[in-house]
Specification:
alpha/beta; Rossmann fold; 7-stranded mixed beta sheet; binds guanosine-5'-diphosphate; cell division; Small_GTP-bd; Probable GTP-binding protein EngB; magnesium
Amino acid sequence: MLIKSVELYKTVFKPGDYPEPKEREIAFVGRSNVGKSTLLNAIFRRGLAHTSSTPGKTRSVNFYLINSKHFFVDLPGYGYAKASHQEIKRWQALITDYFKSRPNLNLIALLLDSRHNLQKKDLEMLQWIQYYSIPFVAVLTKTDKLSGNQLSKMLNSFRKELETWGSPLIVPVSAKTRKGISELINILFGK
Ligand code: GDP
C-alpha cells in the first residue's frame, strides 16, 4: 500500500463533531510521549502531526485523509502526568464517544513503548478496546533504543501479556530508522 496523499481533514474538539465516514478508518492511540506523532509523520513522510513538546495540549481528535478515501485518526494521548482531573474527564468523554460513534472504525493501532511493559493506563485502554469490540494491533515504538536481544525479550514479554487480550498482532517499529514502517502500513490496510 502506497500513501500518495495526506491532508489534515478535520480537527475535532467536541464529541459528535466527526466527519462523514470514508472507506477505511484506522485510529492511533497510546500513552502521551509513546511516539505517536513521530510515527504518524514517518508514515505520512511529512511533518503534519504535531509532536507533543507540551503533551497536555494535544486534546483533539485529528482526522487525516489518506489517498482521498481513508481516514487515519490521531486520538489524544493518555496518561500525561500533569493533566488535570477535568482534562482527563474531557479526554475520556471524547474517546469513548468516538469509539461508540464510528461503526466503520476498522482497526486501532495501540502504540506501546517497546522498552516498557504494559502500564496501568494501557490496560485501561485495552479494556475500552475490548468493551467496544474493536480489532486492534499492538505497535511497539522506538525499537531503535533496544538491542536485538532486548527487543526479542520484550517481544516475548508483550506476547505473554497480550494473550489475555486476544493475542493481537505485534508490530515492532522505529520512526527514527523507519524499520517496520512499510510492514506496518501494509498491516493497517490488511495487505
Ligand atoms: P507523542 O506524545 O506520542 O506524540 O510522542 P512524540 O512523537 O512527540 O515523541 C516523544 C519523544 O520520543 C520525542 O522526543 C521523539 O523524538 C521520540 N521518539 C519518537 N519516536 C521515536 C523513535 O522511533 N526512536 C527514537 N529514538 N525516538 C523516538
